[in-house]
Fold this protein.
Amino acid sequence: MGMQATSKGTMPVVLLKEGGSETKGRDAQKNNIAAAKIIAEIVHTSLGPRGMDKMLVDSLGDVTITNDGATILKEIDVQHPAAKMLVEISKTTDNEVGDGTTSAVILAGALLENAESLLDQNVHPTIIVDGYRKAAKKAKQFLQDIAETVTANDKTILNKIAKTSMQTKLVRKDSDQLADIVVKAVLEVAEKEGDKYTVDIDDIKVEKKAGGSIKDSVIIQGIVLDKEIVHGGMPRKISDAKIALINKALEISKTETDAKINISNPQQLKSFLDEENRMLKNMVDKVIGSGANVVLCQKGIDDMAQHYLAKAGIIAVRRIKESDLTKLAKATGARIVNNLDDIFEKDLGDAQLVEERKIEEDKWVFIEGCKHPKSVTLLLRGGSQRVVDEVERSVHDSLMVVKDVIEKPEIVAGGGAPETYAATKIRSWAKSLEGREQLAAEKFADSLESIPLTLSENAGMDPIDTLTVLRSRQMKGEKWTGIDVMKGKIGNMKSSDIIEPLAVKLQIVSAAAEAACMILRIDDVIATQKSAGPPPGAEGGMPGMGGMPGMGGMPGMGGMPDMGGMM
């Protein structure tokens, strides 16, 4: 039944359609917080190097095995609106900085859980929100205070960053080699503007192929196309390639409008087909005339055109993705041509080698030795499709954190050290706040410690003992002291090479605080449903509808107790 309100015990006022519902006040808050806590609980066990993986099976039966927070939450397809907000922050964190998705969700869940105890003490949600916002601002300030500035293109630091990001993933044992190719790839595409660097991750093409082992993953100075050469008569390899990038079909296009051709004798048919061939040959001649010996086409290539290209000893590949064409243009220095009349030698790109190679059972085209390798390809391998997919996710996180440090060259320790430091600082700062905001700020500090707590829990250490030792060492000013999960003890993160970008930590605090504040401010959840509409045939007047006995006045209808307030 829809939402109703009664005025002085008279007729109920129906506001919502049938099937609508409303949850108010504390119930709404409790419900939202509970949903967010469950989401945090799901990813909680996957944090850190000792975190566990999740197996997710979708409606089609496809299996994903991962411990990447963003992937887990994307795949589980949540329904609850408050839970969706937490999924949203993991997505945003993934897009912005690439790593820290699990941490952001755990922190948001902890903030809400701690807020719940304040709500039970009748602290107003707005006060909690204000306290959290101030504490988040302060936390970011403290994190910036302990950050260390590094040289943006320092390979050693970048390698450590990439490795730290992979320590939590399936690829941990191969992290040395993968970190190396990740750093190389990012430095290849990084562009310097004044003192700053910018990195466009889209310039790094990631191709994956099941088979072999993770160790077989390589970086290719150029582009790999998961396509094969179109014609058997074409060469399989060309050195000193002159590459034409064509965004037009090498085919005879059909007429825009319906057209009819009347052919009355075989001669006419022959001349019609000859003309078609002549047009195709004309197209191919224009390509040959430009001096190209490799044609990469975004659209189709007619069989006849393939024949003429093969005769001229040209390699051709068709139906290339637009994104790949753009990358090729960057890498080879070619111009993408839409009109064959416009193709000249100056529009061609260069590459030392274009070759078709067999990768497992597929044939792929490799374009290597480009003049401006502003686009590179990472070819990832792994024992099975599931492994390769997880390698790809790990490499994406790693690419992103290296990009973060190159663009914002500041680092902090890993292993829960910065969170513990910020928490201890916020506790002492909270005392300067007047009023109930102080309580909220203290709860924010407790929430920050959920990260080192979870890390130690997942590592099988005693969480309380670990945290108390960590706090005391941080109080002494040892900002690099964190939890070395692999060794199962507290130690100096710098000497263990566990370092993370500052950008990731700032994003985690911002995203979690914003999501928690947004959920806390909600005190009413109104859900509407589409009206089911009348049953079929009801409109015309079902027989007997008009005169069903007793419809006009069922006894006692007017005065049933509490009818007005039914939902």
Q: What stands out?
A: The two ends are 6 Å apart (CA to CA). Residues 334 and 349 are 4 Å apart (CA to CA). The chain has 16 helices and 23 strands.
